[in-house]
Write a structure and sequence with these properties.
The complex is a heterodimer of chains A (174) and B (100). Chain A has 174 residues and is mainly α. Chain A has 7 helices and 1 strand. Chain B is mainly alpha-helical. Chain B has a single domain (4-94), classed as Helix Hairpins. Chain B contains 3 helices and 1 strand, in the order βααα. Chain B is elongated, with a radius of gyration of 17 Å. The chains are: A mainly alpha (174), B mainly alpha (100). The interface between A and B is large, with 82 and 68 residues.
């Protein structure tokens, strides 16, 4: 009963935040509602027993990634979104696509609705267990992600770094 | 006890909100946040299925999704800064050339 109540409250907060992200016109409001979605999702993870995932969700997602978003919004001085007429392709393909997706999800759920229940803290994902798995079963993927992060750092520095003006290069030779 | 399908419904709603935002929104930063919303919806279904099947590798996979999302955010926001520097706009309708 407590499980269902907590699930409903924080699920409602997550859905409200997601809808608010769509409704708000200013990007900073969208970013703040996305933080609310991520925080309530971390409570859902805790209810399922995934302690490590919940902590990483708060630290990495709601902390690091969203701070980066808010920082870029401030840096670019992003104002209110200007409304433009939606492209015809988006209407022709998007609305049927969303409808098909919703029908598929609903159909799958109806077909498999009797798949049993999940108890509170069903699978305790403690950091030591996750760490053991990461460094034994998933050692190669873990090392590959370190290379991915290194490439991402270099790409971000190259892309966002101030480009050298071409007019200054001949002056250097002279 | 909460049925597994409730978690999947919540995950599906979050994912659909992300898809809708990706299609509707015109601000490039908000579109990027919609992608993060979609990733979050998928993560929730990963954790729910991990609890249902008693398989911890689902939670490890969520960790990998978060790492990829962090890398994607770093590169994507750098691209947004580069685009803004050359176009002085964040509206995707005005970004219609591949040329910087």
């Amino acid at each position: 009963m407590l499980h269902l109540a907590l699930f409903t409250i924080f699920g409602a907060v997550a859905v409200a935040g997601a809808v608010n992200l769509l409704v708000q016109r200013h990007p900073i409001n969208s970013a703040l509602s996305l933080i609310a979605v991520m925080a309530s999702l971390s409570v859902e993870y805790l209810l399922l027993g995934a302690e490590f995932v919940a902590a990483v969700q708060v630290i990495v997602y709601a902390g690091a990634i969203m701070v980066l978003f808010v920082f870029v919004i401030m840096l670019l001085n992003a104002g209110e979104e200007e409304l433009t007429r939606g492209s015809r392709v988006a209407i022709l393909v998007g609305i049927p696509g969303v409808l098909i997706g919703a029908v598929l999800i609903a159909w799958t759920l109806v077909q498999h609705s009797g798949t049993g229940e999940v108890a509170i803290g069903a699978l305790p994902g403690r950091p030591e267990t996750i760490g053991w798995l990461l460094f034994h079963d998933f050692l190669l993927p873990f090392e590959v992600t370190s290379i991915l992060v290194l490439i991402a750092i270099m790409g971000a520095v190259v892309l966002a770094g101030r480009p050298v003006p071409t007019s200054q290069q001949p002056r250097k030779e002279a | 006890m909460v049925p597994l399908s409730y978690y999947l419904v919540l995950s599906g709603i979050l994912f659909t909100c992300g898809v809708l935002g990706f299609l509707i929104k015109r601000n490039i930063i908000t579109i990027f946040m919609s992608i993060e919303l979609m990733l979050n919806g998928v993560n929730l279904s990963f954790v729910a299925f991990a609890a249902h099947w008693q398989a911890l590798s689902g939670q490890v996979f969520v960790f990998f999704v978060m790492v990829v999302a962090a890398a994607e955010t770093a590169v994507g926001l750098a691209i947004i800064i580069a685009v803004f520097r050359t176009r002085a706009t964040l509206n995707v309708d005005h970004v219609n050339l591949l040329k910087l």
